[in-house]
Fold peptide-methionine (R)-S-oxide reductase.
Amino acid sequence: MSDDTTAQNEQTYAVQKTEDEWRAELGEERYQVLREAGTERAWTGELLDESRSGIYTCGACNAELFQAGTKFDSGCGWPSFYESVRPDAVELLEDNSLGMTRTEVRCAACGSHLGHVFPDGFGTPTGDRYCMNSLALGFTADEE
């Protein structure tokens, strides 16, 4: 079990499932990103070019995470947002993997890995860039 998965299991979240239940529900590709802190290849995510109004949710538990109005084109190859829907919607943790220090973003409801946040969202109201994996997100468009 990876350190990330172990850390997820040490925290108590509102949505609780065994790793076997997560794996069966999510499938291998989503499980690898959401539960094992993996990263999808840049420029491949189905939500990268999504531009409709709506809400982005956790791909594991459907908790609301980001409003479409906070999404911006950061040029990094992953969906980027400048703030979460509420400060308590996401959990921010220090990530020292890959020989660098970053800030991991997890769903506060289930502890699933979403991506990382960086202080380089130049030109945004917050200066932050929440760089998220498409595989870690769901999207529901507003009804028109």
